[in-house]
Amino acid sequence: MSFEPKQKVELDPPKDDIISIDYLSKCDGTNPDYPTYVAIKGTVFDVTGNKAYGPDGSYKVFAGKDASRALAQSSLKPEDCRPEWDDLSDEHKKVLNDWYTFFSKRYNVKGKVEGATNL
């Protein structure tokens, strides 16, 4: 996986706002009044504008939730889109950290998920 975007992305300074699970769930790409967010390890990334996370996108399952476990396991199953990842293998944790790095170089950090402990 290449971590550097093909074209440099100018990102805003990361925010540390607390984002509730309820608000995050509304940011699933289906509501035009809300941005589209994906959380990884409790950090919320703004993926608005990337059609892959929209209602018809191939990664729509990740939008509006902390999808850490699914990303670590390279899974597109909705039941895997949850924040628990502590019990995963070292190999899966490395994959998760790679995804975190990938997102952090492309998308603005909007804050942390309320109650997230895996920070």
TrEMBL record:
GO terms for cellular component: endoplasmic reticulum; membrane. Gene3D superfamilies: Cytochrome b5-like heme/steroid binding domain. One of its GO terms (molecular function) is heme binding. SMART domains: Cyt-b5. It comes from the Eukaryota. Residues 19-114 form the Cytochrome b5 heme-binding domain. PANTHER family: BINDING PROTEIN, PUTATIVE (AFU_ORTHOLOGUE AFUA_4G06240)-RELATED (PTHR10281:SF115), MEMBRANE-ASSOCIATED PROGESTERONE RECEPTOR COMPONENT-RELATED (PTHR10281). Belongs to the cytochrome b5 family. MAPR subfamily. This is Cytochrome b5 heme-binding domain-containing protein. It comes from Salinomyces thailandicus.
